[in-house]
Specification:
Blueprint lengths: L1 H28 L2 E8 L3 E11 L7 E13 L5 E15 L4 E4 L4 E6 L4 E4 L2 E5 L2
Antiparallel strand pairs: 1-2, 1-8, 2-3, 3-4, 4-5, 5-6, 6-7, 7-8
Amino acid sequence: MKTVLFMFIIIMSLNGCHLHLKRNAIKEFLPGVYTRHYADEYTDSYDTIEIRLMTTAGSDGYTITSGTRFEKQTDEGKSIHGYQTKRWNGFYEAKTKLIWIPSTGKRIYFDPGKNELKIGTQPYKKLR
């Protein structure tokens, strides 16, 4: 009986370590620069998302900077160029493995296997 209990404790400890390492791998993936390109008959845009840790290691707070460069065509054929920058603060939720941005209600989902993040349904590829 003691052997079975001992083996159970070892298996549970290893399983807990595996989950902890997996969580850390996702959290380590978060900081970086992500980009996407969108084009249709009226719009051509490039979006960039930069995610940075707010403070030293151990923090769950992140600064998210979104930059969009766009070119729009009007019905008259006129080209309009522009650039927008937005900055938000977000918090990593370990349970759901995403960043939540309280001011907008947005959630940022991460997929290290695909090397991307998603805001809504829009995928962004990680550059670095």
